[in-house]
Amino acid sequence: MTARLSALPAVALARQRWRALPPRERSAIALAAGVVGLAALWWIALAPALATLRGAPAQHSALDAQLIRMRALAAQARTLQSQPRINIGDAARLLEASVRERLGDTARLVVAGERATLTLSSASGDALAQWLTQARVNARALPNEARLNRNTNGLWDGTLVLTLPPR
């Protein structure tokens, strides 16, 4: 309450000074205050909203692409879940066949229990990516550990450990 009472004389003093100004100065101050008010309205309210609207189509397109990718992955997951179970022996045979088919002499596969170790020597990235997809879909083998290095020719060397499906 004390603050309000002390504000009243300040407001009255400001009104008295405002009335004492010549009309030309009052118009100039009102115009300057209007310009400052409009600038503040622009920077605080309108500019951020317009920037959001300008960026919305690109963000919408990116989110649509992400949604399409997520739906494709979900469909792939449902397909993989609906496939019948495969035993370790069949999975190992499928992996060995796919190594011969996709990677040829650039890879060697060793199966021990529920783990398969693939040793690569100058394998192409495309062939490795295709083989990984085939190993996941057909043999249901999942990558567990990877130690891969790109050699000077741009090809891949190293080991990849896969986990075979449970018994």
Q: Would you give an account of this structure?
A:
- The protein has 167 residues and is an alpha+beta fold.
- It folds into 2 domains: 2-81, no CATH class; 88-163, Gyrase A, domain 2, CATH 3.30.1360.
- Helices cover 65% and strands 19% of the residues.
- The protein contains 4 helices and 4 strands, in the order H-H-H-E-E-H-E-E.
- It has a 4-stranded antiparallel beta sheet with strand order 1-2-4-3, with helices on one face.
- Strand 1 and strand 2 (115-123) form a beta hairpin.
- Helix 3 (88-103) runs antiparallel to helix 4 (125-138).
- The mean pLDDT is 89.
Fraction of residues in helices?
Answer: 55-70%
CA-based shape: rod-shaped
Low-confidence stretches: none
Q: How do the helices and strands follow one another from N- to C-terminus?
A: HHHEEHEE
Number of helices: 4
Q: Calculate the mean pLDDT score and round it.
A: 89
Radius of gyration based on Cα positions: 35 Å
Strand order of the largest sheet: 1-2-4-3
